[in-house]
User: Fold this.
Amino acid sequence: MSTVDKMLIKGIRSFDPDNKHVITFFKPLTLIVGHNGAGKTTIIECLKLSCTGEMPPNARSGHSFIHDPKVGGETETKGQIKLRFKTAAGKDVVCIRSFQLTQKVSKMEFKAIESVLQTINPHTGEKVCLSYRCADMDKEIPALMGVSKAILENVIFVHQDEANWPLQDPSTLKKKFDDIFSATRYTKALEVIKKLHKDQAQEIKTYKLKLENLQTLKDAAYKLRESIAKDEERTELVKRQMQELEGSIHDLDAKILNASETLKHLQNLNDQLSTKKAVRSTRRDEKRRQKADLPEKNLDTDEELKEWKTKFDDRIRDLGTQIFKLEREQDDTKTKSNFLGQTIKDSIWDVSMLQNEANAYSDLKKQRDSTIQNLFARHNLGSLPDPPFNNEVAINLTDRIKSRLRDLEKDLQDKKVGLTVPLMLGLKNEASNDYLT
Assistant:
């Protein structure tokens, strides 16, 4: 429960603007007693103004609420109300409202200076000040107290001039009760609830449609899942059949390979048989021809036949010896040919290497001639013969460049000596002058 602890009043109605008046409110009841004009009603008005921001009736927009500056012979009066209360949560809060009344030439000017809320930081124990606009302050304090502004204004801190509001006309009375009991808020809440109910019904209808759609999708998904499971089973069955077929294909490939090798062997045998038949036919024809060429009867004696046989054997041996010599000569010729082929390859390689070196040497000569031409043109060393330069001409031109370089270095050294001597003399003279001084 929210309670009011203390209130400071300064410069409000009959309260002196130069002195601070502090009123302490006791629990559970505080009685305010005093003569007429002592300020009893002013205390209630200050409580109402601090909590709700509403000026009391007949205050003439604050002109008669602030202490009149003409009473003290001043042109300006400042008033302040400082209220300390506990919020509904039991937290101490101080509300400060400051005002100013200024006497102008032809009129009085009222102005609210500042509205401040002071609280204590529970972690550090330090005071925290928050400045508000008046409108924000009027909403913040009732919220902190946990009481509506209508109750504070019309029930708790009601002014004596407005205490007869229950006897007013029905429309005003209804408005007062609506504010006190928050009937308008209740009506608005009902409208919001109806709107929310309508929106929720629409959302429920939408969600039902979505649910039906999702249920359809779910059923389709279950069917697809079953179809996928069946397809996976079929796939596994097909894979097993493929593996079996691959094994059968492998066996058939092996049989086909074996049959191909057997067929090739049979073809080779058939070719050999055909060749043998052709050779046999040829030899048979040769034998018939030789038999036809032979005389019908040999009239030589056995000694002559033996002699012919011996000569034939000698001839065979001589021919065999010649064949052996020719084979050896052929082997030697092959060896020599291989050696000469390797020698030719090595020579070709050497020729290519020499050709590359010759090309590189030619490039270096061209680079040398270009460098000599650039140096002669840059340093005006004279005319040059037409390139390319032979070695002797290149050596002579290089010597001319080196001679020119030595001359330039000698001139540079002479210039350095010529500049150093006057500089040393100047430094020596300056040192002498400093010493004399």
